[in-house]
Design brief:
- The protein is of the alpha/beta class.
- The protein contains 14 helices and ten strands.
């Protein structure tokens, strides 16, 4: 087995790899001082100056914590606050002791200050944070995690993300899988929403891009988001972790792991299926895939990511469907499998047998509102199904999904 664990980058050079942080000391040469004093005195007073500088820093931080000026509070709240302190009522606020409030304020500022500092950490430090999170969420096999990504629009209450989480709660054998989900948040609002749900949340940051809106698939920002997601997934593979990637508009109704092919390096859903899991003629959908970490998949992902330069203004799914026939894939020995729609269905082709369905994806559908409406119907259909005695749905051929009603073969 050529799977890799941790460590080596396999020659894959990522942004920030060549950046070495150096201590930058401002040297102030006081020529008048040197002219009139001996070197030992200079060394002594340099030490005093250093101590005074450190003292001023400590006093400054203490002043920040103790005084909570309006400017500082507003700065942190606007720029780096991911969550708001919860209070049950105004009476609770007024009844709190001044000492408790003071301690809470100090802790809040320290937390925000830490957030401010860590946002500017080098890429190596960010990857260390990611690896710590992956170790927390990994399954019993010590190498598999579930990953989804989220932006502000999809994280709105009673929208896509809430339905995604509900599907794990009501699915058959899916409740325990939720603790293995890592949510990659593209913006502050999505991160805050994720944290409030008590999930494993990782901030995926991209400079100068606003991922908070529901941009069109071909928009510049959405393309950047798609390829930033790909870079994130490459990093996970290079760290030695297998993963199931799932869009947040995929409802998890059963445990998918028993239905994955044991010999597949890269397994992906498709919009339509014709009984051959190795047939690359299927139109693949990158919204749900199971990938094992090994040299073959890492090489494939590098090749895939390089495709954005050869297919400008195209997102990752279009590039994948353009390169899946390339001889390079055969040369590296990648075992690619396409997952059956009978188990891994979607609005393009719903799984007809609810006794078999594992996931339902809101594909062939654009627009947050109509996507949310049809996914709510999926949840309601599933609740009806699990409320009936075993086997009844199989005997009633007239009973099936009520979806897609708004999505499906959408033009």
């Amino acid at each position: 087995m050529d799977s890799i664990r941790g460590g080596g980058r396999d020659g894959f050079k990522r942004k920030g790899d060549d950046i070495n942080l150096e201590s930058r000391v401002y040297h102030h040469d006081n020529h008048h001082y040197l002219k009139n004093h001996h070197r030992p005195h200079h060394q002594y007073f340099s030490g005093v100056a250093l101590k005074l500088t450190l003292l001023f820093i400590v006093v400054g931080i203490a002043f920040l914590l103790l005084n909570q000026s309006m400017y500082t509070t507003e700065f942190f709240q606007k720029s780096y606050s991911f969550s708001e302190p919860k209070h049950s009522s105004k009476e609770t606020l007024h009844s709190s002791s001044s000492s408790d409030n003071h301690a809470a304020i100090q802790q809040n500022v320290l937390s925000k200050f830490h957030q401010f500092m860590t946002e500017n950490l080098p890429s190596q430090a960010k990857e260390n944070d990611l690896e710590k999170m992956l170790r927390k969420t990994v399954m019993k096999d010590k190498k598999t995690v579930i990953i989804t990504t989220l932006n502000a629009e999809w994280s709105e209450p009673n929208s896509i993300f809430d339905l995604f989480l509900e599907s794990f709660e009501i699915g058959n054998g899916t409740q325990n899988l939720l603790k293995h989900v890592v949510v990659g948040a593209f913006d502050m609002k999505a991160y805050s929403r994720c944290m409030k749900k008590g999930l494993h949340c990782y901030a995926i940051r991209t400079e100068g891009v606003d991922f908070s809106g529901n941009a069109n698939l071909s928009s510049e920002d959405n393309l950047k988001m798609a390829w930033q997601k790909m870079d994130f997934l490459v990093t996970v593979l290079e760290m030695g972790y297998d993963y199931v990637f799932t869009d947040a508009d995929v409802m998890w109704l059963r445990d998918p792991f028993p239905r994955f092919h044991p010999d597949g390096d890269f397994q992906i859903t498709c919009d339509h299926f014709w009984y051959n899991s190795t047939d690359c003629n299927y139109s693949a959908n990158t919204g749900f895939k199971y990938v094992k970490s090994n040299n073959r998949t890492i090489q494939f992902y590098k090749y895939w990511c390089a495709g954005k330069d050869y297919f400008p203004e195209k997102h990752d799914q279009i590039v994948f469907n353009s390169i899946r026939f390339n001889p390079f894939i055969r040369e590296i020995g990648l075992e690619m499998r396409f997952l059956e729609t009978a188990y891994f269905g979607g609005f393009c082709k719903p799984s007809e047998d609810l006794d078999l369905v594992i996931t339902m994806h809101a594909n062939c559908c654009t627009g947050l509102e109509i996507k949310t409406q049809d996914l709510k119907m999926v949840i309601n259909d599933w609740k009806k199904y699990i409320s009936l005695p075993s086997g009844i749905w199989s005997d009633l051929s007239t009973v099936s999904w009520t979806v897609p009603r708004h999505c499906g073969n959408q033009k």
